């Protein structure tokens, strides 16, 4: 089996990074064998911070719990109480069926001001913390403990336009309108362009729905509610009525003392990206001056700020905000944040799931990790009752236009070093296509003196191309892409002439025009206009390349459906100009949140989260890839069609089908319910989609392809359907059975192709009923046979200070072993490097004696996602210090240090869709010998 190849220098850096991370997380390792302790792999663990979930039988207060623990510690371990203080960071005093508990901070009393600079290597302090946590875990009042982890600031993609200066502050700090450089034709497309894609325009015009009476919560970086699109204020009487700032502008998630809470969730960051304000505008902007509206411009908003002006937040804060939004009465909660998980069991996803089931439906971004391959959906969207939203590109974006003398327009972007670009005569540097255009050693085919050179991207740097053009007398340079249809921003450092970039298509058209028209033998006049105008997006109505790819590891279909997320125009803070364009599933999720608000206004709050998800899936429109239907593991049910979703009564359940893998395959039934007044006959059709090849074993083994590739066109299921037509009268419910007869094209495909498609119910005798689509997915092969560990992983890491010895094994061979020397701090542990090709519901580290008999357990970790080929995610690490929980012992307090001698570790990964009680369900590796000496 092959895997990717990294340079030795890269590996050295990766090992160093993982080693540092392992030190940071080392104080958790001896806790991991307690079933109440739930390790969290979604983000970096924050030292000294834990979330404690109370058992439902505990009815006391959080303060009672802390006081009891501290009293117990004083009696049993007086030295600990003098060194470490346990304080409450957050009190989750909510409905027990959602979450009751606390987030705690363990502080060193010697120097609280230096908390976030604590010595990560202080084994004594770590041991004291472990003892305190063991005492907590022994409490019957405690259900679970979760480490507090960082959640990264939401990423946005394709920030390709300048912010639009629509508003500013005057001398008295009042918000005043500016005159934006924005040109919209009265007969052309209107902002935000996306409402025609989703039928939102029809909902507003025909149904007169704008979200009035519905409350939508936003958990993000705050809102600049001073913006006229939100009424200019906060609280009763304003659109942004509810919310709180949990962090302050200078929040550092590693330092609990950096929090500066505020009664208002204002985003007033001068250098921030305005993420929360952009999200809010997509949902609810109602700007009468510029005539710009979001999906549901009359909803009431709540905003809970969990990000400062920069940096990360933490999962305990997101949980606090989720509970606060639910208790404030939000009907819908938007979470355009999270991180890769691909499991439904992450604590944030679990709590969001409970909140969805209680009536505050959580809409979350599926993630912007489409380039990292299949099986990579973000939490909390991975929660089963939560909605994971994929992104589809908008049909138009706003760009500055380069206009030729014959009237053709091409979008352009200025380079990182260019402020303005004067008009001039455009000529080809080389008349033929060449990615060596304007590289060192080339000569121009045309006279460049005083002119603008058209060159192709590639072969050499932008700085080199610009320098060559300048040395040949050129006054400017236009670079066109060599492989992509999307526009790019040229990052240059030292160029001394103006530079702009255009698309591949634009460059080829300009080059052909100059080459073939004698009028332009001395150059084609071109002007670079600064006003923003609408331009068609070549990938419009198709899946955004950045949108994360499913399914979950249990073959649950995720994402659920899609919203417009690529090239989305919306509000920004006043300090950022008031408006701008961002891309991401962060933009698609609030679009769906606004759509849910309109549905709730139309039909009330009686329907369950699961019913609403199914109904939105029923009437979504599958997106195409070329002339073929794109796969459901990228788009779920497809792009929402809101007018049909609101108006159509017929409902199909479930809203999607998973045929699982080959071993766990089951035939499926769909239930069709008609609560309407008309009898409808449907023709039942099968529309297969493109299949996905998640692996290419010939090139990189079972390391998932980044991004995943489409399998050959003929990889598709043949379905047996119990009915070809079905007639369903008012009040009737009927079932249709579906089974996979066979999957075509498997012989030609790479291993584990993921097939899919849509079962279409097409009305044949009705002018009002609309087609219903039910997506399905399946995978050919047994997921239980997918390898968990990469080749030569897990393994011990050799670093400075590592001590080795030679050891004779039972078969007489000599093995090189590792030494844990307790007398030497630098070598008092061994470090294991892991690289997971496939996520696992459980990774165990067992302790064996020198005869390979299991004598205890060191750790187990649950619901790990896989590694990627990214530099900082290539591996992760764990340290063993020669301790274990003996066999038959579940009490964490009985962890013991091993006596001097020779031992082994046995690493075990639970395979997908496997029974942990079956020994064959585990992939196993045994370590080299480890000699422990005092």
TrEMBL record:
Residue ranges annotated for the PA domain, each copy included: 424-510
Classification via Pfam families: fn3_5 (PF06280), PA (PF02225), Peptidase_S8 (PF00082)
A GO cellular-component term linked to this record: membrane
GO biological process: proteolysis
Family: Belongs to the peptidase S8 family.
Active site: 220, 275, 586
GO molecular-function term, one example from the UniProt record: serine-type endopeptidase activity
Domain Peptidase S8/S53: 211-621
UniProt cross-references to InterPro entries, sorted A to Z: C5a/SBT2-like_Fn3, PA_dom_sf, PA_domain, Peptidase_S8/S53_dom, Peptidase_S8/S53_dom_sf, Peptidase_S8_Asp-AS, Peptidase_S8_His-AS, Peptidase_S8_Ser-AS
Residues in C5a peptidase/Subtilisin-like protease SBT2-like Fn3-like domain copies: 657-776
Signal peptide span: 1-22
Alphabetically ordered keywords of this record: Cell wall, Hydrolase, Protease, Secreted, Serine protease, Signal
Protein name (Swiss-Prot/TrEMBL): Minor extracellular protease vpr
UniProt xrefs under SUPFAM superfamilies: PA domain (SSF52025), Subtilisin-like (SSF52743)
């Amino acid at each position: 089996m092959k895997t990717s190849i990294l340079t030795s220098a890269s590996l050295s850096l990766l090992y160093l990074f993982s080693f540092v991370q392992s030190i940071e997380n080392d104080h958790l390792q001896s806790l991991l064998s307690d079933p109440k302790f739930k390790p969290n792999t979604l983000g970096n663990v924050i030292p000294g911070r834990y979330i404690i979930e109370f058992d439902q039988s505990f009815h006391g207060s959080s303060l009672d719990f802390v006081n009891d623990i501290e009293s117990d510690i004083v009696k049993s371990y007086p030295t600990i109480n003098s060194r470490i203080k346990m304080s409450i960071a957050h009190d989750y005093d909510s409905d027990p069926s959602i979450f009751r508990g606390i987030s705690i901070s363990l502080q060193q009393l010697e120097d609280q001001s230096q908390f976030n600079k604590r010595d990560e290597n202080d084994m004594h302090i770590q041991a004291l913390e472990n003892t305190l946590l063991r005492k907590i875990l022994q409490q019957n009042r405690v259900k679970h403990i979760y480490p507090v982890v960082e959640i990264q600031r939401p990423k946005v993609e394709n920030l390709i336009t300048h912010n639009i200066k629509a508003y500013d502050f005057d001398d008295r700090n009042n918000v005043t309108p500016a005159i934006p450089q924005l040109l919209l034709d009265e007969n052309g497309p209107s902002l935000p362009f996306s409402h025609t894609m989703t039928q939102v325009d029809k909902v507003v015009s025909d149904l007169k729905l704008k979200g009035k009476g519905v409350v939508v919560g936003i958990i993000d970086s705050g809102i600049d509610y001073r913006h006229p699109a939100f009424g200019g204020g906060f609280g009763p009487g304003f659109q942004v009525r509810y919310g709180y700032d949990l962090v302050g502008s200078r929040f550092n998630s590693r330092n609990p003392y950096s929090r500066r809470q505020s009664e208002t969730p204002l985003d007033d960051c001068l250098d921030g990206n305005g993420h929360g304000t952009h999200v809010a505008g997509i949902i609810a902007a109602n700007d009468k001056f510029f005539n710009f509206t979001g999906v549901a411009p009359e909803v009431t908003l709540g905003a809970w700020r969990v990000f400062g002006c920069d940096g990360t937040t933490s999962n305990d804060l997101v949980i606090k905000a989720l509970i606060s939004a639910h208790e404030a009465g939000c009907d819908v909660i938007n979470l355009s944040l999270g991180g890769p998980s691909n499991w439904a069991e992450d604590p944030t996803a679990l709590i969001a799931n409970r909140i969805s089931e209680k009536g505050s439906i959580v809409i979350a971004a599926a993630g912007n990790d489409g380039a990292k391959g299949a099986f990579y959906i973000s939490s909390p969207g991975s929660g089963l009752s939560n909605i994971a939203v994929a992104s589809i590109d908008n049909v138009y974006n706003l760009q500055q236009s380069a206009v030729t003398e014959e009237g053709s327009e091409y979008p352009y972007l200025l380079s990182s070093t260019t402020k303005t670009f004067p008009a001039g005569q455009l000529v080809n540097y080389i008349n033929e296509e060449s990615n060596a255009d304007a590289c060192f050693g080339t000569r121009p085919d045309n006279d460049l003196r005083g002119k603008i050179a058209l060159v192709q991207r590639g072969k050499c740097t932008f700085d080199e191309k610009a320098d060559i053009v300048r040395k040949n007398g050129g006054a400017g340079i236009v670079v066109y892409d060599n492989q992509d249809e999307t526009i790019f921003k040229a990052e240059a450092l030292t160029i001394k002439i103006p530079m702009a970039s255009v698309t591949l298509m634009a460059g080829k058209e300009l080059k052909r025009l100059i080459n073939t028209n004698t009028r332009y033998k001395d150059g084609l006049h071109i002007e670079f206009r600064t006003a923003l105008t609408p331009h068609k997006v070549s990938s419009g109505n198709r899946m955004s390349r950045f949108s994360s790819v499913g399914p979950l590891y249990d073959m649950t279909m995720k994402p659920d459906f899609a919203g417009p997320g690529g090239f989305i125009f919306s509000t920004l803070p006043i300090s950022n100009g008031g408006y701008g364009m961002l891309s991401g599933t962060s933009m698609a999720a609030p679009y769906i949140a606004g759509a849910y608000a309109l549905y709730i206004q139309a039909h009330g709050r009686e329907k369950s989260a699961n019913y609403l998800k199914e109904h939105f899936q029923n009437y979504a429109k599958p997106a195409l890839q070329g002339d073929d239907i794109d796969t459901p593991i990228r788009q779920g049910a497809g792009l929402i069609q809101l007018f049909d979703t609101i108006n159509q009564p017929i409902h199909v359940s479930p809203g999607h089908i998973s045929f699982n893998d080959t071993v766990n395959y089951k035939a499926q039934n769909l239930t069709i319910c008609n609560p309407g007044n008309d009898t409808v006959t449907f023709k039942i059709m099968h529309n297969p989609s493109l299949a996905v090849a998640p692996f290419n074993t010939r090139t990189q083994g079972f390391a998932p392809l980044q991004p995943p590739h489409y399998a050959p066109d003929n990889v598709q299921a043949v379905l047996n359907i119990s009915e070809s037509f079905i007639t369903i009268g008012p009040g009737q419910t009927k079932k249709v059975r579906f089974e996979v007869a066979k999957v075509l094209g498997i012989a030609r495909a790479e291993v584990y192709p993921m097939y899919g498609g849509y079962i279409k119910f097409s009305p044949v005798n009705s002018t009002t009923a609309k087609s219903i689509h039910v997506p399905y997915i399946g995978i050919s092969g047994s997921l239980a046979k997918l390898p968990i560990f990469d080749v030569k992983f897990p393994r011990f890491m050799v670093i400075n200070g590592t001590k080795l010895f030679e050891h004779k094994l039972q078969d007489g061979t000599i093995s090189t072993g590792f030494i844990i020397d307790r007398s030497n701090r630098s070598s008092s542990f061994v470090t294991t490097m892991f690289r997971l090709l496939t996520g696992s519901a459980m990774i165990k580290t067992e302790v064996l004696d020198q005869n390979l008999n299991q004598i205890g357990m060191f750790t187990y970790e649950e619901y790990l996602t896989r590694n990627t080929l990214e530099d900082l995610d290539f591996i992760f690490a764990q340290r063993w210090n020669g301790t274990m929980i003996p066999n038959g012992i579940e009490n964490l307090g009985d962890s013991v240090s091993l006596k001097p001698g020779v031992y082994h570790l046995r690493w075990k990964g639970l395979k997908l869709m496997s029974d942990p009680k079956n020994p064959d369900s585990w992939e196993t590796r045994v370590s080299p010998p480890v000699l422990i000496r005092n």
